[in-house]
Amino acid sequence: MRIFGKVRHRPSASWRQATDRAFTLIGDGRYEDAGALLTRAVDLEPWLSESWFNLALLHKFRHDWEQARAAGLRAVALLDRESGAPDWWNVGIAATALQDWPLARRAWQAYGLKVPGDGQHGAAATSEPLGMELGSAAVRLSPEGESEVVWGRRLDPARMEVLSIPLPSSGRRWGEVVLHDGVPHGERVTAAGPSYPVFDEIELWAPSPVPTWVVLLEAATEADRDALEQLASDAGFAAEDWSSSVRLLCRTCSESRMESDEGDGEHLDPHDHSEPGHPGPLGHRTAGDLWVPERECGLAAPAGWCAGCWTAGSRTARTAGSGGISKKSAEWCP
């Protein structure tokens, strides 16, 4: 088979050496040096889809989406199979990052996924977000740092809406949409049986205007705590009892198959904060005989809504709902 006047063959030793060294440098975070080697590999074997795939992968790591899209398209042009190639998945991620919806649609279809509106024609079928609604999954925020696994709703193969309330240290908010990678790193298994993949965040795709409040509550019973969560939910916002919904996991455990309690179908608890240490509480609903009235909660809601329940920063407890919840203090986290 001849492509660009060349006979396809196995990569040369020089190509393999340059590529292997490049990925070692990528592992060390030396992207510029790796880029020079992968560019050399492309010059050595320009007819190999792997050459362009590796270069597209590097651009993805660097969040250089224009270059990732360009290299990815060169890679898929050289494929020798019709569907299922990871080259198309990377093109889909780059296209989603750039909001190039016609290309994203084409990429997911070429990979072998069914996209809503297949077979339709016209701008309306190709120029808007795909809205594939792929169900619940988990995403690891800040995977290279002090990471946190939270639950979300998959909008399409590369985007997830965050439904948990992330801890302030994550720099993320409830309701944000994050771009995520395609290969899961870990799995969460619920008591009911279903398992959910854990994807790594690549970058923030759409911010949320809703701030996060760290709230200390005095809740005599679980029902009192539940009243706050219901109050926030009814208003279109969210509250989460971090005292029982967050557990500490080491990175090895976080990236493995872990058990998790099942929530209400929209929000699954717990979410994981990955750092050295022993696992913390495993479930959102703590047994009554172990209940501790003082709860640290996350509240995702505008300041104006919070003011209707209490005065932010006041040490004077006020009732926040009918369950007898008393607020001790609140701190806004940008």
TrEMBL record:
Gene3D superfamilies: Tetratricopeptide repeat domain. This is Tetratricopeptide repeat domain-containing protein. It comes from the Bacteria. Residues 259-287 are annotated as: Disordered. Residues 259-276 have a biased composition (Basic and acidic residues).
